[in-house]
Amino acid sequence: MHAMDQRFIDRVYESLAFEHSREGPPDDFPALPPIPGGRYTDPEFLKLEQKFLWGRSWLYACHGDEIPRAGSYLLWNRSGSSILIVRGEDNRIRAFYNTCRHRGGPVVRDASGQAKDSFTCGYHGWTYDFEGRLKGMRDRRDFVDLDFEDLCLVPVRCESLGNWLFINEDPQAEPLLDSLGPIAAQMQQFDLENIRHIDTHGFEVECNVKVLLDAFLEVYHLGSIHQHTVNRFLDHRGTSIILWPRGHSLMVTPNRNPDWVDPGTRGMIEFQDVTELPRKTNVSYNIYPNLITPVAATGLPFLNFWPTGERSMYVECHWFSPDWGDGHRHELWDQRIENFDRILAEDTQFAPKIQKSVESKGFKGIKLNYQERRIYHWHEELDRRIGIDRIPQNLRVSPRLSGLVEGRGD
Ligand code: FES
Ligand SMILES: [Fe+2]
After folding, report:
1. Which residues' Cβ are closer than 6 Å to ligand 1?
2. 82, 102, 107, 137: which to mutate for ligand 1, most atoms within 8 A of CB?
3. Among residues 213, 184, 204, 170, which one has the least CA distance to residue 379?
4. To test ligand 1's pocket by mutation, which of 82, 98, 103 has the most ligand atoms within 8 angstroms of CB?
5. Same fold, 6-56+182-404 and 59-164
6. What is the CATH number that goes with domain 6-56+182-404?
7. What fold is seen in the domain 59-164?
């Protein structure tokens, strides 16, 4: 399959021109009923979301560079369970519940590290190899009916797109690459086998995870909170949006000046096969549910939004660069990451206040417009994943956008 074919690119350009000149939403665009505020606050709803969304989706976990050798591991707990991700002797990366098969002790305690030849549970010393097999134990003579093969660490689904590793706690989940739909092929332009991980950091924000995630699904806010930054070079009125099945979406925002190049990336190495679109416009994917990636010819961040409580969340920012060969990464990277964090701070500044506000009696639901339709699409998918019958009537989102979703059934 071609990375991002010319037909697709031409279509996006046509759409950008249309969006810029339109005087209202297209005639067939439906009115969107308000999204119930309880979806951001109601404990019962958030429990459903935890179980059916976070517990059953493909979620980005790490890049292969972070666990480079046999026995390199890290602990990952964003979906709710403690999960051990480890590179095996065969160079394959696997994931297991970090739960000893004896009495549930944590097999690994450090957030990341390099194991020598096995993992030893800290409670009574059972040992496991990097493929999760039980290898040894103390006082074996005291166990009756012991079957080592039956006592392997319990595996967790773990699949990759290039070197990017995703985890899904649902054993029945469809394969990652199927679930990504057209995004998997479009990402190939970023030289996925060689793209390098250069940084991961993050910070807590006091709001429900969706309050902040919503801000990354639209550019309607540019003229206010990014007035002196992003808004100076992006033209939000020309934004083109594509909605895909399974909640994924794409947003392409044109530069105000078509020849504009981000001075903060000038001179940086580019992905060899990158298409024109990420070079000339701002292209941002939402890999459902919580991965936003504004891709560029010179590298890209993964922004992950994780719930840490009903009213708290963690923003995680991973950066990836085209392979630059030997030596240090380009000197502009430090500044580039710092600049991006400043924009992120603009996005997060009101989030705790918005959370308070959506909990007040004065809040009657979220009234979305045409250019904010990715948010509505996101919520429609959430209801599909939870199962509409499980959701209290007053917290449901009424499906409106299915006619605008591309390639349904792909
Ligand atoms: S709980 Fe792990 S060895 Fe006992
Ligand atoms: Fe923003």
Report:
1. 100, 102-105, 121, 123-126
2. 102
3. 213
4. 103
5. no
6. 3.90.380.10
7. Rieske Iron-sulfur Protein (2.102.10)
